[in-house]
Amino acid sequence: MEGSGRVKATVVGLSAVLMWATLGVFGAGSGQVPPFLLNALCFGTSGALAMLWLAVTGKLALLRQPPGVWAFGTLGLFGFHFFYFTAIRNAPPVEANLINYTWPLLIVLFSAFLPGEKLRAHHVLGTILGLAGAALLITGGDGIQFSGGSALGYGAAIASSLFWSSYSVLSRRLGSVPTEAVAGFCLMTALLSALCHVALEETVWPAAPQEWASVLALALFPVGLAFFTWDIGVKRGDIQVLGAAAYSAPLLSTLLLIAFGFGVLTLSVGIACLAITMGAVIAAKDMIFGHRAQSAS
Fold first, then answer.
1. What are the C-alpha distances in Å from 150 to residues 28, 34, 102, 159?
2. Helix, strand, coil: what percent of the chain each, to 5?
3. Per-residue DSSP letters for 234-293?
4. Contact 169, 117 (CB under 8 A)
5. Alpha-carbon distance 231 to 185, whole Å?
6. 187 vs 5, 21, 92, 168, CA distance in Å?
7. Half-sphere exposure (CA, 13 Å, Cβ side) for 252?
8. What is the CA 77 to chain-centroid distance, rounded?
């Protein structure tokens, strides 16, 4: 039963990766809305809807958590987005994205410090293959050249990677905190994002109904439900598999952008697809082929 519960939680967590794959399409459809305003709109909507659901189901009491839990959840969600937006504003986007996308690898490596988890060679190999595929995808097969004048942006990209990987792994240590508490983290992230928008950005609202629809889709799925299902996955699922599989998000996002006419299928995309898929299968071999269950029996 314990093994089946772990697999189920992993599958639930993987749904977050699938939802994050739609970020590119829905983000492109949201028009010229600046990042922090978009963040505030999406997290505000998802948090409010989650609060409504908690009120209807009589679960608002689950939000009564110690201040440290609130600080942890809010810093995890907001900190990642704050440093990511800072990175892409102050460094070349390709290099900033590449640095940021070390977070799945860091999740796998950091998981070795969790009670009951063992980091095996195939976890590392699979995740490195995923990172290589993501690097190929982000750079398009071209070389990368880090700019000497972009230290702030690169530092912020490192911080964003550390924030999300640490949040994901440390969530496992807060397994007693119900997933419903993420609703509060979303609202706090929305509030902080709104303050950053007022201080740092010019207001540009969605200009057409389809742009508002894209914002709503973002709020419902990749910037909403995904954070709840990811919480379930990292707390009760196979965190190494989730880390390696996270590299499929930029791949699926690219494929969706191509399907909707925002990109072109190239050889580098095909090779990246192969590398990321192989990496995910290698990292998840215990779960797929049942080796862990067999060895325990």
1. 25, 21, 18, 14
2. 80, 0, 20
3. HHHS-HHHHHHHTTHHHHHHHHHHHHTTSS---HHHHHHHHHHHHHHHHHTHHHHH-HHH
4. no
5. 12
6. 30, 23, 30, 19
7. 17
8. 10
In the structure encoding, which two tokens stand for residue 38, read together?
A: 């978009």
Q: What is the pLDDT of residues 216-270, one digit of tens each?
A: 999 999 999 999 999 999 999 999 999 999 999 988 888 888 888 877 888 888 8
**Which tokens is 46 given?**
């998802």
Tens of pLDDT, residue by residue over 183-210, are 999 999 999 999 999 999 999 999 999 9
CA atoms within 13 A on the CB side of 27: 18
Query: Token digits for 215?
Result: 């914002």
What gap in Å lies between CA 65 and CA 288, rounded to an integer? 36
Paired tokens of 283 = 């990292």
pTM of the model: 0.90
User: What is d(CA 178, CA 235) in angstroms, rounded to the nearest whole number?
Assistant: 10
Tell the residue number behind the tokens 């829905």, with chain if given: 26
Of residues 239, 123, 93, the one with CA closest to residue 172 = 239
Q: Which amino acid makes up residue 277?
A: T
Tell me which residue of 64, 50, 40, 79 sits closest to 167, measured CA to CA.
Answer: 79
Residues 6+ apart with CB under 8 A from 199: none
Q: Rounded CA gap, 166 and 144, in Å? A: 27
